[in-house]
Design goal:
The chain is an alpha+beta fold and 265 residues long. The chain is 18% helix and 45% strand. It has 2 domains: 116 residues, Roll (Diaminopimelate Epimerase, Chain A, domain 1), CATH 3.10.310.10; 136 residues, Diaminopimelate Epimerase, Chain A, domain 1, CATH 3.10.310. It contains 4 helices and 18 strands. The chain has an 18-stranded mixed sheet that branches. The two termini are 16 Å apart. 44% of the residues are buried.
Amino acid sequence: MKETIKKFSANGNTFYLLDARKNPSKEDLSSLTRRLCQSDKKVKTDGLLILEQSKNADIKMRIFNSDGSEAQMCGNGARCVAYYLMNHDSKTGELRFETIAGIIEAKIIKDEVKIKLTNPKDIKLNLPLEVSERKIHVSFINTGVPHVVVFVNNIRIIDVNYIGNLVRNHEKFQPEGANVDFVEVLGPDSLKIRTFERGVESETLACGTGAAAAALIAFKLSFVKENKIKINPTSGELLTVEFEYEDQKFEDIWLKGSVVELKED
């Protein structure tokens, strides 16, 4: 098993990857994920990526959060998978992945990997919410997984874990719950973001679908003017979100950033 498990980081999101296309794991995947993530003392690991055979695309990608729950989609995780296939299967150009959220595409350009996300759904703007006896307004969007986007004036002073947990578990977003993105507008094409991730139940260093959620909602609310947005996550490793917007609809949403393979000691 050890020989088939590798580790990657995409803009601060860190994952184990298990290639189970030829030899499907007989171990319970939720238990395996928890064991791997809990045993990692050096770098906080956000989950486990599983590669399986697919009849509908180049591969099937499954994503397990560090708590053992299975996610529908993970943007930075998908970029890690594309990078792995390029370096270990000599795949180049374009790839297609099957996920619970639908078919996504990937393109590889040197050490940068970009993926095309499924079109967003369930967009709801400026929802009133009462959190910790305070009334705030948030927006909701599903970019493959559900996200609540909260715009703030000073992101550095936000208690992401405390407030994020309250919003993530708020009755308005049950039964699924949601990831929570705190976003500060830096300019007409630039955002800073901190994300509380469902399934990790903590702030993570980056979140690909969260970066897309922040960019699309910021554009919808006219906080940014461009359709190519630079996203600065907690890790400090920039992500770029590009999209088209016609007839009040978002299409061709691409997430781009770096990926590195982490070597185990």
